[in-house]
Amino acid sequence: MNRVPLPADITLGKSYEYGLDVNLGSFAVPQWQSCRRISGWAPTFPKVTNDVQSYDDQGAPNEDVTGRGFAGAFTIQANRSLTSGLYLPEIEALLNASRAKAEAAVLDVRFYHKPAIGTPHPTDAGRALVTVEITRQNTGNAENEVFAVTLTGKGEYTPIANPWTGWGSTAPTIIGITPADAGSGDLVTITGSGFLTATAVTFDTLPAEFVPANDGSIIAQLPTDTAGTVPVVITNPAGSSVAFSYERGA
Questions:
Q1: How much of the chain, in percent, has pLDDT values that exceed 90?
Q2: Which residue, 159, 184, 203, sits at the end of a domain?
Q3: What is the total count of domains within the chain?
Q4: Is 190 within a domain?
Q5: Do the beta carbons of residue 85 and residue 94 sit within 8 Å?
Q6: Is residue 204's pLDDT more than 80?
Q7: Could you give the maximum distance between any two Cα atoms of the chain, in Å?
Q8: Which of 29, 151, 153, 156 is the most exposed place for a label (fewest CB within 10 A)?
Q9: What whole-number distance in Å separates Cα of residue 242 and Cα of residue 59?
Q10: Which branch of life, at top level (predicted)?
């Protein structure tokens, strides 16, 4: 039997060609942080049904699908900063949600197709509000720390345009600066993501001397300036972070 040839631009999809982001900002002004080093991404869309069986079905089941939920599961390597002791910001967000109550337990996420080559599927993407459960997957004496994560949707997911723009670095995200009220010449630690390839750090548009400790942490020296609330921006080859407000001293 002859095999029917496929068109030249057809390729077989890969299991790893999906991405997941968590929102570190607000729902209205999101700051999306990719979940790095994940495996086994398994989204599901459980159905909600209503029994519409009648005599005409002659005893056979007949149910309409009246809604769709959202759920997902994956594993993620538990990388953490040697400087701060914190996990990467996306892991911190997952852990915080898994240990919180009420609205603090709800996390905003998005998922999307991200192919190794070719064009991403334009509509294979969505945004959902979820609650989180986390367990430590590896608990042996000489294993890497890995978390098994389960997401349970609150309501339906929202289809979105696929945000994937290709492999490579992403613009930095700032989630915190310590200590507060540092003054001119003092050192501060900036935490977030996308810092390893940083090309500039500015406080109120003034350039600062800096050294990336790792992808999630930068040590910066405050430039000379007056006290007050200043915007802090980090730039790498992929772009600039959303300005982070920092209350500095003189």
A1: 71
A2: 159
A3: 2
A4: yes
A5: no
A6: yes
A7: 83
A8: 29
A9: 60
A10: Bacteria
> How many C-beta neighbours within 10 Å does residue 47 have?
12
Give the closest residue to 189 by CA, choosing from 229, 225, 232.
232
pLDDT, position 1: 59
CA distance 145 to 137: 7
Q: What is the separation of C-alpha 28 from the centre of its chain, rounded to a whole number of angstroms?
A: 16
Task: Kindly report, residue by residue over 122-163, the tens digit of the pLDDT.
Answer: 999 999 999 999 999 999 999 999 999 999 999 999 999 998
Smallest CA-to-CA distance from 223 within 212, 210, 207, 211 is with 207
Whole-angstrom Cα distance, residue 133 to residue 150? 5
Cβ atoms of residues 13 and 117 within 8 Å: no
Are residues 47 and 144 located together in one domain of the fold?
yes
Q: Clarify whether residues 127 and 192 are in a common domain.
A: no
User: Do 81 and 180 reside in the same domain of the chain?
Assistant: no
Q: What does the mean pLDDT of the chain come to?
A: 92
CB 205 within 8 A of CB 232: no
Question: For residue 203, what are the domain limits?
Answer: 173-248
The reply to whether 2 falls in a domain is no
Residue 5, domain member (yes or no): no
Please state, in angstroms and rounded to a whole number, the distance separating the CA atoms of residues 149 and 81.
20
CATH number at residue 200: 2.60.40.10
Name the nearest CA neighbour of 30 among 76, 83, 93.
93
Residue 100 lies in a domain: yes
- C-alpha span between 242 and 97 (Å, rounded): 23
Q: What does the alpha-carbon distance between residue 94 and residue 132 come to, in Å, rounded to a whole number?
A: 7
| pTM for the model | 0.70
Q: Pairing relation of β-strands 187-193 and 125-136?
A: unpaired
